[in-house]
Amino acid sequence: MCELRVLQIIKGLDIGGLNGGAERFSVDLSGQLKKLGCGVDLCAFFKMNTPTEKDWLTKVSDKGIDVFFATAWAGPNNLRCFVEGSKALRLFAKNRGYDILHSHFQQGTYTALWLKRELNGPVVLRTAHNVVEWEPGFSGKVKEAISDFIYPRCLDAEAGVSKTIVEQLSKRYPDHIKKQRPVLVFNGIVLPSDEVSSPSVTTKKDKFTIGTTGRLAEQKGYFYLLAAIPVVLQRHPEAELVLLGDGELRSELEAQTTQLGIERHIEFAGQVNNVLERLQRFDLFVSSSLWEGLPTVIMEAMAVGLPVVATDIPGTRDIISDGENGCLVPPGDPFALANAINKMIEAPLLRQKFCEAGKQSIKLYRIEEIAKVYLNLYEALLARY
């Protein structure tokens, strides 16, 4: 068939700041689709004017992918900003002949559905990247109710990145609606080259570095992780915790660190560009998230050969089998986290087992294979028209 023209729509390129795993995945997916022969453009809907955005814009441009910023970021729930951005994206897309509009965030999905009508028929699909898609409270419930009605009736397809997300999406499809039911398509990552060495596992170290990556936000459960550290230090005073990422809770988390008297053992590293390099310096990766979609950061940690302790939540459960390629603990339980961390520090052979098993299991999530799944989905949807 002729070259498939695809527009990927994401919230923005401030990845590691206001944006996260969904946007990172979309960039990697765009690059791989281009290698498979698709014509791919990327709409980063909101321009945020941060150094991180500038770095990611360079990375995307190096892949030969055009980036269009629809509007400037003016804060959440800014209707005027959203309308202006949608109009700007319509002008950008008008003569580009897109076959597929693929959205990875809520506002982008509504824009894509409007563009479908305005541009007379590109296929529109969305990927749901998280089990919690709307803000808490009344406004979030209203938005959820609206999307529950519109998406099954208007979208050509929905994909979920974990089994739990697909189950959630499927519940809102009435039997009389003949649209395709939501499909499971895992997120994928670019696996590091074979030259990237795994962290060494030794019986005793002068310093044991526990690492984590993610936005400093409620979702990541960092208050519970910090609360676990004093318990760890009682048995292992050589331990330290490094947090890669930034966010709105940084000052509160730093205050908690001071209150617990563990400042010397905690590093708030902020946003970093060399995540892979920093991961290789860790001895253990910990995810304390309260909810997730399919956590890219865990996949990346396993890919470089890090043993992982994570919370037993949907999404993470798709990646880690407890006791086989990692350790799962209940969410929101600092003592369970501390006990698991202590166990890992004291069991180098178990860490080695998880390192090796993790590197093998994560090969299922190679971006090359996930991109082929999406390409097949695109072609199947277009075949219906």
Structure in words:
There is one protein chain. The model has no long low-confidence stretch (mean pLDDT 92). Helix content is 43%, strand content 17%. The chain starts with a strand and ends with a helix. By secondary structure, it is an alpha/beta fold. The protein has two domains: 201 residues, Rossmann fold; 158 residues, 3-Layer(aba) Sandwich (Rossmann fold). Strand 5, helix 5 and strand 6 form a beta-alpha-beta unit. It is globular and about 65 Å long.
What spatial form do the alpha-carbon principal axes imply? globular
The portion of residues assigned to helices is 40-55%
Q: What ranges have pLDDT less than 50 throughout 5 or more consecutive residues?
A: none
Major β-sheet profile? 7 strands, parallel
The total of helices stands at: 14
Structural class: alpha/beta
Number of strands: 13
User: Measured on Cα atoms, how large is the radius of gyration?
Assistant: 21 Å
CATH architecture of the largest domain: 3-Layer(aba) Sandwich
**Distance from first to last alpha carbon:** 14 Å
Q: Look up the CATH topology of the largest domain.
A: Rossmann fold
How many structural domains?
2
Percent of residues in β-strands? 15-25%
The sequence of SSEs as H and E is EHEHEHEHEHEHEEHEHEHEHEHEHHH
CATH class of the largest domain: Alpha Beta
Classified in CATH, the superfamily of the largest domain is Glycogen Phosphorylase B
Strand order of the largest sheet: 3-2-1-4-5-6-7
Overall pLDDT, averaged?
92
